[in-house]
Amino acid sequence: MTTLPVAVDQPPSWRPVDMAAVLASTEPLVVPTLFPRDDGVFLIYPGLVHSFHGESESGKSLLLQWECARLLRSGAKVLYLDFESDAHSLRDRLLVLGATPSQILDGFTYVRPDADPRSEGERAAFEALCRGCYNLIVIDGVTDALGIYGYSTKDNDEVSAWMRDLPRRLAASTGAAVALVDHVTKDVEGRGRHAIGAQAKMASLTGAAFLVEVKDPIGIGMVGALELWIGKDRPGQIRQHCGRTRGRMQLAATVQVDGRGVTTTILVLASGRREDQDRPVSAMETLKVRVSRAVEESAEPLTKTAIKNRVAGRTQEVLTAVDELVASGHLTRVQAGSAQLHSSRHPFQPGDANCDLKLADQLVTVNPAVAIVATPEPETVTEAETGSAGSGSL
Predict the structure, then answer these.
(1) Which domains does the chain have, with CATH numbers?
(2) What are the pLDDT digits (tens) for 159-196?
(3) Which pLDDT band holds residue 227 (cuts at 50, 70, 90)?
(4) pTM as predicted
(5) Model confidence over 21-43: pLDDT tens digits?
(6) 123-130 and 167-174 helices cross at what angle (nearest 10)?
């Protein structure tokens, strides 16, 4: 069985660890910093290996692609090893999830492997990836990834070797969080918390394992919901923030997927929040999330026209969402000459009422001579400007 060569700059792994240095170290415990819920709890650990597994069309790839788009919008770097789809499909998915072409070009590395990276013609390219710097690495399609190594998904020894050779090596060499996208068995009763195949898939994970289940179907033009169940949390920092149990699993999040607009909105809700509210998130709340994010991510205050250009939806509905966010204190509105400029004070989340940062008077008049320059916009919108949004791909 062939294994990857050890890099020359790595010390022997069988050399004893200097425990004096370990005890003197002030390095903090590893904590999750990726894949945020709406309450600020994160579900993915940097530098560790995770699994997102579920049935076909359960949204497992979509969830990680949402995190890819979120990271790209923040200027982070993503490596996507795709064993199941193609570059054009990933491009469309990232765009519909809110990443821009420039953000994709700057931060997204896409690879579509179809040969063993240990082979003569592939080794140099793989070693270059191992020297890269990424925040997140997604390995989409574990069964096919094992196949190009000549490994069986049911053999514990071969799965363990693959976990060392690919995901764990990438995590160790790049410092990135690694997330595997995998399938589950058809037997709902017997699958438990595991992905399909060898038990070593779960045992070799160094981060967390999540089972993705469909609560309400997702798709283009639909609002659906997924449940994210945590089945393993090796560092132990996530389970304390999870909800109800089912065997050895806990509900880590409920995810709403809104595919009715040009862009797809995904809301990762704290476990049990949807049940507590006893209702789905409304279309207006989803629109407010989009508006809130658009203003929050802008480097400068936005006029209503600028917000509308960034948010898919009917013009009047977008403008209503802006007004309601101002009224609730999530946005501030400043009058600068004939223009009204909007800035973020607090991100909107479904279920929010009035923001505790609300000002007594949200409409503040400033000296036009010192105001930020902005293109004046009319305060009324004609019926001709109102139109419906198109559909995005899920």
Answers:
(1) 30-213 (3.40.50.300), 289-385 (1.10.10.10)
(2) 999 999 999 999 999 999 999 999 987 766 656 677 87
(3) very high
(4) 0.71
(5) 989 988 778 899 999 998 899 99
(6) 50
Q: Are 244 and 261 in contact (CB under 8 A)?
A: no
pLDDT single digits (tens) 43-74: 999 999 999 999 998 999 999 999 999 999 99
